[in-house]
Amino acid sequence: MAGSRWTTLGFERRHNRIARSALGGFAEFRATIAEGLPVAPAYYPHVRALNASGAPIVSRAPLPLVRDIPGSAVRIDPRPPHVFGAGHRPGALNVVANDSFAVRVGATVPFGSPIVILTTNPEQAERLREQLAVIGYDDVRGYASPDPAPSEEALRIEQLDARAAAARADKGALLLDVRENSEWNMGHAPGAIHIPYEEIRERAKELSPDRPIVTYCAGGIRSSLAASILESSGHDVANMRGGFTAWQNANLEISRER
């Protein structure tokens, strides 16, 4: 009905593939309407339960500056990938502070986990806490410097341009596409394997710890998060700067095999 104020059932049955699929079995209709949708974030079932029972009242006192991060806390580093890659704290996850911040935390961090936001800006920490509250992630313990403590080693994730990533693959590195299924189906780097970033933590064991990995997404942000998860599980990983967009702009080969 796009662009029209009215339609007919006959027109929709002839030209609308979703309407046509509704005439078949439920399985066909469900598959059609689900096509192109991203992986459902892991926090969804918990939010559904919260909405049904009502969320508890939590403190909204200003977040404290944390000097010693609890070992149980998840470290969320919201800096851009190139800054994060240049040096970050061990165990930090690179979830860039944009409009998708909460969704990506909810897709990769277990519900109910205590969180420390790695930023020196208390106002940014408060803004990100507000985003997390929308999806029920209320256990934010505070904020801390993204720079490693004196007792910590500074870790780095190399940021490769598209041609350097292709060259690394030619030498044996694994190209890992962390985009959604619909993006993968429209084209990907030849020889790449596909694991959506939401599934990286659970499926990291499928990847050999002895083979270097280069992650990529559409623009380099989701793949930096995936790279930080793989780094924390002991993999040798680099991130492709600019993602598949940069790959296309470099006129590199594209595969559409599924």
Task: Please give a structural write-up.
By secondary structure, the protein is α/β, with parallel strands linked by helices. The protein has three domains: 30 residues, no CATH class; 101 residues, Rhodanese-like domain (Oxidized Rhodanese, domain 1); 91 residues, Oxidized Rhodanese, domain 1 (3-Layer(aba) Sandwich), CATH 3.40.250. It is built from twelve helices and nine strands. A five-stranded parallel sheet has the order 5-9-8-6-7. It has a four-stranded parallel sheet with strand order 2-1-3-4. Helix 5 links the parallel strand 1 and strand 2. Helix 6 crosses helix 7. The longest helix has 13 residues. It is globular and about 70 Å long. The relative contact order is 0.14. The mean pLDDT is 92.
Helix/sheet category? alpha/beta
Radius of gyration of CA atoms, rounded to a whole number: 21 Å
Helical element count? 12
Strand order of the largest sheet: 5-9-8-6-7
Query: What is the oligomer described by this structure?
Result: single chain
Q: Helix content range of the residues, please?
A: 25-40%
CATH homologous group name of the largest domain: Rhodanese-like domain
Q: In what range is the share of β-strand residues? A: 5-15%
For the terminal residues, how far apart are their CA atoms? 31 Å
Spans of at least 5 consecutive residues whose pLDDT stays below 50 are none
Shape designation: globular
Count of individual domains: 3
Mean pLDDT: 92
Q: State the major sheet.
A: 5 strands, parallel
User: What is the CATH architecture term of the largest domain?
Assistant: 3-Layer(aba) Sandwich
